[in-house]
Predict the structure.
Amino acid sequence: MGMRSTARGLKAALTTFNCRYTGLRTYCARMETKGLLFRQLFEHESSTYSYLLADAESREAVLIDPVLETVDRDLKLIEELGLKLKVTANTHCHADHITGSGLLKQKVFGLKSAISVHSGASADILFSEGDSIKFGRHKLLVRETPGHTDGCVTFVLGDQSMAFTGDALLIRGCGRTDFQQGCSKKLYESIHQKIFSLPGNCLIYPAHDYKGQTVSTVDEEKKFNPRVTKSLEEFTKIMDNLNLPKPTKIDVAVPANLVCGLHEI
């Protein structure tokens, strides 16, 4: 009985993964017919997602949340696809990995780094609420979503079909609020006011996932997220009692990311 139950569980998990993967491939193909090239990239040590978006005509590209260890992989893909990387945009000052922005700037002429003006970090572009990052005919709009850190933002594609939520909203979870200016009330309000106000079918792409999930939607998170579907009081209690370990790279990552990875590599 135990073995049959385990087998059924594994089959169900594999079916869910295949559905999500097939759906992502279908969505990528559909977006490319609209003139947008999109790739979701993964770094296994910190479970970080980086996102490559490009205009199919001009080939101008933006890379969201690059990771130092995967710079060569990302550059190889950019070269293979014939893209011109214009901006590396960080959703916030990460504590669990060093951004790849600095090393990428050394390797790509004219590349600009970008981060929130409220992050306390330095970069070529310091953006705030309502600003946009343009690449060809497309653009990412900035929505400030503090709470995990003061400088957290969500990047929303111009047609509101995709949102890159950083650590603010994760798939069936959210960013922690126990360090780096964390505030549960701010995070709750950011999610409900700045992310949940997007169309229900808007795809949610987080900065991390630790369970192999790749994408969600606004409607899914409104219904099924076990934290942010609660009241503010309940949410605060949950966040106050997570008791998570300190990120292993925080003492190295934060100082490096405060200069957008432009440290001595």
Notes: The chain has seven helices and 14 strands. The CA atoms of residues 47 and 209 lie 6 Å apart. The helical segments are 2-33, 71-80, 101-107, 184-195, 218-224, 232-240, 250-257.
